[in-house]
Specification:
With 174 residues, the protein is of the alpha+beta class. It has a domain of 84 residues. 26% of the residues lie in helices and 34% in strands. Helix 2 crosses helix 4. The chain is built from four helices and seven strands, in the order H-E-H-E-E-E-E-E-E-H-H. It has a seven-stranded antiparallel sheet with strand order 1-7-6-5-4-3-2. It comes from Fischerella thermalis CCMEE 5318.
């Protein structure tokens, strides 16, 4: 009888905890170094669909233990971002500390292959508010990896001359 009662009391003490994990993967023609430089420039988040600005000075290299503030496009309330792990040209893992009841971990992983450079963007939400937060942040999370790839490729594409050659011109017109 006591064993049953103690199990019943322990079950009542448990809290509801949901966990959401999503991973997005994109391929790019840019090099690993170009992707990494855009990613670790924490002062420039113009490519990010959710973040508006940060308080990080230009040139600061992210290291584990760095805590900085960022402002989202959804609200003017600043959030705290904590850098957890950094493996140069390979992995950047951060934790977003926005509101109590939600723990968000974000990791960017860069891999070089024969086909191109892969960027993996993983989001893990934990806490009892995570389903509600996921409803609001999912449309933005879907676009983060693609927006980073587009920003890097737009910056590295060679400029096209304003005057285009017509098809009637010969190749010996120099």
């Amino acid at each position: 009888m006591r064993a049953w009662l103690s199990k019943f009391i322990q079950r009542k003490r448990r809290r509801f905890c949901a966990s959401l994990v999503r991973t997005y993967r994109e391929i790019s023609s840019a090099s690993v170094d170009e992707l990494w430089q855009k990613l670790v420039n924490l002062a420039d988040v113009s490519w990010h669909p959710l973040l508006k600005s940060t308080n990080v000075p230009y040139g600061l290299v992210p290291k584990p233990g760095l805590i900085y503030k960022a402002v989202t496009r959804l609200s003017p309330i600043p959030i705290h971002i904590f850098v957890e792990r950094v493996n140069p040209r390979e992995l950047l893992s951060i934790r977003v500390l926005a509101i109590p009841g939600v723990e968000e971990r974000v990791s960017y992983k860069i891999e070089s292959t024969v086909c191109g450079t892969y960027l993996s963007y993983s989001v893990t939400l934990r806490g009892w508010l995570s389903p509600l937060i996921w409803l609001f942040s999912r449309p933005y999370a879907d676009r983060v990896a693609k927006a980073l790839i587009e920003a890097v490729e737009k910056g590295t594409l060679p400029t096209v001359p304003a005057k285009r050659k017509s098809l009637n011109d010969s190749c010996f017109d120099f």
